[in-house]
Amino acid sequence: MAEILIQNISKSFGKNKVLDDLSFEVKDKHFLTLLGPSGCGKTTLLRIIAGLEYSDTGSVIVGGKDITNVPVEKRNIGVVFQNYALIPNMTVFNNIAYGLKIRKVDRQTIQEKVEYYAALVGLGDLQGRKIGQLSGGQQQRVALARALIIEPPILLLDEPLSALDRKIRGEMQYEIRRIQQEVGITTVFVTHDQEEAMTMSDEIVLMHKGRIEQLDTPEQIYNHPISLYSSDFLGKANTLDATLDYENGKAYAVGDGWCFPVVPPAGIEEDLEDICLAIRGEQIEFEQITEEEALAARAAMDAAEEPVPTAVAQIETVVFTGEVCRISAKMGADDITIACINTRAESLRPGMYLKLIVPKDRIHCFRLGDSEKARS
Amino acid sequence: MPKNRRKISGTRVFFTVWIILTMVFLFFPIAQIILMSFNTSVYGRLPIVFTTQWYVKLFTTSKLLGAAGFSLGFSLVVSLVSAVLGIMASLALRKFPTRLNNIFNTLMDVPLMIPWLVQAVSLLLLFSFVGIGRSIPSMFLGCLAAVMPHSFMLTYSRVMTMDPYPEEAGRTLGATPFQVFRDITFRMIFPAVLAGWLMSFVLCFNCFSLQYYLAPFGTYTLPMKIFTLIRSGSKPDMNALATIMVGITFAIILILNKIGFGADQLFGAPRRGEKE
Ligand SMILES: Nc1ncnc2c1ncn2[C@@H]1O[C@H](COP(=O)(O)OP(=O)(O)OP(=O)(O)O)[C@@H](O)[C@H]1O
Ligand SMILES: [Mg+2]
Q: For chain B, which domains are there?
């Protein structure tokens, strides 16, 4: 069993507090991704787990054993570095074999294992090459094979795919995931690419300035973000400022020229409090309406005393991006982006009017404190 | 456009001539010595009448060979110690905080600036005070102090600019700090170490003033021997010795180049059409 327990890890570089009291668990054989913007402390955390950096407080526990003070070379943790860190004066074969040579494995076994892992990562017959003669993708594979060959219970990967082009990147994502499941290694993966995080992970730790913003499965974080920051980082949602309005026990979010029925955020009882909404573009349903219908709906809303659910938008642009179309529209005074499969958008033209329908549980409401956090 | 092109080729001619003149200036004296070592005339009179008598004299009656052997051995020991110290200092300094690092670095620059003559006199004072005066140990320490900054500088700049991650990767693969040094660090800094060692060797071989002041009586390094001999007139067997030394030097350079350590590798100058 090789579950990793991170307990109250803090780390400062001088006055710069990089990690602030982090605690979480990576279950045995799980694939956990650290996701966050540049500089939020992902690499630092990974280096602390690997033993290449010491934390100021807290402990790292692997399989029930506290390894906080165990030196790097005794930890038996495979690491793939952000920039591969291959040994420049060794051939591909010697790079991959290095961990085994250190372990004094006999030559025959080394030969066989290098063959096996080179094939596993798809390296073909490049073993005699020098490191300088490899492409980025090939170097990446060497780094991966080198980390895997020591058959570590834990694998740490620091943005290993950031230097690759889209296509190879997709292949490598798939391969890393396959190998990880095949070999059964507890893995911590670092990325600042939300799409990559969602495709590969069992769980995602969304980090924000050295703290954990949300820790959950990709589906949960995507569908139930707990803050505006989460909703914005995973999948770039529409964010709208609104006022919360209770009417007959029901809650409405009233904006400038639109109104949605909502589930109010926990802890808000007061009327007329400023809130912020996050709505994902592809979770907006729509139907086309005429200009008269649109104006009538708007007039009815303005005339009424109490909030009337109204969501009418006028199309500004329709952008074709392949599988999906992105429709930018004006809803009241706010901009909103709607995503749909492109066949659905074929007949839509700028200037047309849409009636928007969003299920109540797809509208995420946050108190304003959260939204300020996201914008900073 | 054509006018522009003419101008470029004008500068090109200028620089070509310049380079040729520089090369002549550098290599003509060496060529001259080689020629004179095969000339019968003691005073370098032309035309050249071919002879190998000076070489015969060098290996039979001449007193130069003993001094040359001593100089070679002495410089070898000093430069090896200097290379080892250079590596140790560079690696230690890398771990220092930036402030200390800068201070130490500046201190290491000082011996590079001080004229050897000044250094020699002050060292002689110091050694006399300590009680070892003019002796082999004083000469060893003096020459070491003079050449060590050079091998340190070369090694240190390599250590500071090299990628630290392969070493960390080695640690994560299970290598102890010593194994990391042996398998990764040393191999990565080796060209600089080799350059530093060669440089120390040459400098130590040449540092006449330090040797002159610090050598014990009766001990002669080659530069000291030549200095005493040259005062009593020209000696063509010195030309023969110089020719042999030039030959050995060229052989070393050729071998280094063959095994992949050209000047670009050793001193970090880029070679055309090659990436790092
Ligand atoms: N050795 C160090 N000394 C001082 N500050 C450091 C050091 N290493 C990291 N930092 C600082 O710690 C913060 C977090 O760095 P870290 O490398 O962990 O970020 P990251 O999340 O990995 O970013 P990226 O996505 O760009 O790799 C940054 O502000 C960085 O400047
Ligand atoms: Mg990083």
A: 59-235 (1.10.3720.10)
DSSP state of B182: I
Give the pLDDT confidence of A155-199 residue by residue, as tens digits: 999 988 877 778 878 888 888 898 898 888 999 999 988 889 998
Cis amide linkage into residue B47, ω under 30° from 0:
yes
Alpha-carbon distance of B200 to B223, in angstroms, equals: 16
Q: Which pair of tokens denotes residue A123? A: 């390296």
Distance CA A20, CA A264 (A): 30
Sheet-wide strand order for A353-357: A285-289, A353-357, A312-320, A324-331, A334-341
Question: Which residue from A222, A335, A342, A241 is spatially nearest to A283, judged by alpha carbons?
Answer: A222
Side-chain half-sphere exposure of A39, counting CA atoms within 13 A = 2
Chain A contact probe: residue of B173, B187, B194 with most A CBs at under 10 A: B173
Task: Tell me the C-alpha distance between A36 and A208, whole Å.
Answer: 6
Using only C-alpha atoms, chain B has a radius of gyration, in whole angstroms, of 23
Q: What is the spatial distance between Cα A306 and Cα A261, in angstroms, rounded to a whole number?
A: 12
Q: Determine whether the shortest distance from the Cβ of A180 to ligand 1 is under 6 A.
A: no
Ligand 1, closest atom to CA A47?
A: 18
Instruction: Say whether A73 and B188 touch across the interface (CB within 8 A).
Output: no
Which residue, chain included where needed, has tokens 């179309």?
A: A325
What CA–CA distance (Å, rounded) separates A49 from A212?
A: 16
Q: Is the pLDDT of residue B48 over 90?
A: no
Nearest to A34 by CA among A298, A268, A213, A165: A213
Of the candidates B166, B174, B183, which has its C-beta nearest A150's C-beta?
Answer: B174
CA distance A270 to A300: 26
Q: State if residue A169 touches ligand 1 by the CB under 6 angstroms criterion.
A: no
Judging contacts by C-beta atoms under 8 Å, the chain A residues touching residue B179 are: 102
pLDDT at B271 over 50: no
ipTM of the complex as predicted = 0.79
Q: What is the CA(A82)–ligand 2 centre distance, in A?
A: 7
Please write the tens of the pLDDT for every residue from B84-102: 999 999 999 888 888 888 8
Q: Please tell me the distance in Å from A27's CA to the nearest CA on chain B.
A: 22
Amino acid at B94: R
DSSP-assigned states of every residue in B242-262: HHHHHHHHHHHHHHHHHTT--
Q: Residue B239 is inside which H or E element, if any? A: helix B236-258
Q: Which residue of chain A has the CA closest to B169? A: A85
Is A52 in contact with B165 (Cβ distance < 8 A)? no
CB A13 near ligand 1, within 6 Å: yes
Q: What's the pLDDT band for A310 if we cut at 50, 70, 90?
A: confident
Judge if the beta carbon of residue A43 lies within 6 A of ligand 1.
Answer: yes
- Given a contact cutoff of 8 angstroms between Cβ atoms, the answer to whether B86 and B196 are in contact is yes
